[in-house]
TrEMBL record, chain A:
Keywords: Methyltransferase, Transferase
Taxonomic source organism: Dioszegia hungarica
Single Gene Ontology MF annotation: tRNA (5-carboxymethyluridine(34)-5-O)-methyltransferase activity
Record bears the keyword Thylakoid: no
InterPro entries attached to this UniProt entry: AlkB_tRNA_MeTrf/Diox (IPR051422), SAM-dependent_MTases_sf (IPR029063)
Biased composition (Acidic residues): 351-360
Bias kind Basic and acidic residues: ranges: 21-31
Superkingdom of origin: Eukaryota
Record region (Disordered): 1-60, 284-308, 346-366
UniProt key word Methyltransferase: yes
Name by which UniProt lists this protein: Methyltransferase type 11 domain-containing protein
TrEMBL record, chain B:
Superkingdom of the organism of origin: Eukaryota
A molecular function GO annotation: protein heterodimerization activity
A Pfam entry, by short name: Trm112p
CDD domains assigned: Trm112-like (cd21089)
Name by which UniProt lists this protein: Multifunctional methyltransferase subunit TRM112
Family from the record: Belongs to the TRM112 family.
Family annotation (InterPro entries): Trm112, Trm112-like
Gene Ontology process terms (BP): rRNA (guanine-N7)-methylation; tRNA methylation
Subunit composition and interactions: Interacts with TRM9.
Amino acid sequence: MTTDLSTESSPAEGSQTAVKGSERQNREPKLPRPVKAKAPPKPKPEPIPYRPTSNPGEDEQTAVHEVYEAIAPHFSQTRHKKPWPLISTFLHSLPPNSVGLDSGGGNGKYVPTAREAGVGLVVMDRSLGLLGDARRQPGFGLGKGKGKGKGREVEGDVAAYEVAGSDGSGECVRGDLTCEGWRRGVFDFAISIAAIHHLSTPLRRRRAVQVLLQPLVHAPKPPYARFMIYVWAYEQSSGSKRRMGATTGPPVPLTAETAARESAGTGEQEPAKVQDVLVPWVLQPPKAPRTPSTGESSGAAQSDEPVQVPAPEPQVLHRYYHLFVQGELRDLVVSAAKEDGYRVLGSTEGESGETEDESASEPLSSDTRWIKIRGVGWEADNWWIEGEVGIRPVSLPPV
Amino acid sequence: MVRLITHNMLACHVKNCTKDNFPLVFSEVELVIRESEANYDFLRRFMPKLDWPALVDTARSLGDETLPDDQPEEWTDEQLQALHHVLMEMHVEEGNMTCRGCGHVYPISNGIPNMLLAEHEVGR
């Protein structure tokens, strides 16, 4: 697949084009920088390089699904922190009363944010342990008055619901990232946050993108259905707590040269890089004290491992991650969409500059689904992409 | 929870099951009604995405006869309230959802439907 460098946003540009019209929460992204002084971390498990075997499904069962079930209670404690800002911005930019899917949504971290934004979110995840938390949240699509039946606050505090126990109405479905159990055309938006990086082959990652887009409304006119995907970045900032450096080496500075080299390749097979890793999760014994977060907001919200404290024999479990390099997430989404018959509309910054890619010369024989990338960027050790989909009826000429 | 709004969006996805894969049929259901305030704006926005015959059939299978055969074009408050009740207040806590096409059973436990399939049951 070719990559048009002119449309490939640098992290900084990408962030600025994100979620047009609601940019107040966009923060200036921090560019990845090489680690300078190697402040040796305290004794802490390091990521391990990982080479997927011939049975990716089995690999993911042991290196992802079983680990999440094991760490679910602990994981949930770390996931009620404040939402990542760009995702909050995305949710708040949607038309009110939209309904969307959070694929790989875990414990429903974004359900409260969606409620604030006036949109509904259905949480799908593979882990029953995490879904158990997600379902304790209030259901969407309700009025703002009090529930009549039990005198409960429908708009009440989420925490109150969690305390109240298992009588919430949070919509949860058990399914994995390739679960196609949805009718087409039912969701106004879809998000998949920090999930697709757990799939261990390019084919499975493409499939996840296709499955994410599948149940979206494909409308001939606005408002179009939108999606947002976050994955972990190979390019980690020096302040990252993920500590990939021991195995991946210092983050490669994102110069034009390295970007061009990476984009010229497939992005999947860069031999010098270890993109497939097993990342340790230190499972503290219950009630173990934790060192408070160290201040920086975005980093703290996204730290994935609890800070190591002296504690009796914490258990270390490893989750599989595929770390995305610059350009790879966009390539993934575009190639997945093309494979599924989508026409890719140009992701130009200006409204007037909408162009189609090379597939535009193909004859229109039926209604054509299209995808448009609205923004790509790097934020706090993650790559994100935001886009929209729709359909162009045969009766309309191609743009 | 499986509210009927979610049920109305779920379909069987067993490999090669493309006929009669929607709606899934409830059985052995433990139904809980949780009253809540209606949000008519939400209902109106969701209407175009509803599969009305599936919703009517499913509601009736659970003992609710309040929805008319045909989707109203102009909604009265009474009809909206009935729709709210069916879509948003009927929660299936336990039970099964069975595909009419291939017979696959998707169980519901603790309000969570299990749509997972084994690798060999998944398409592609």
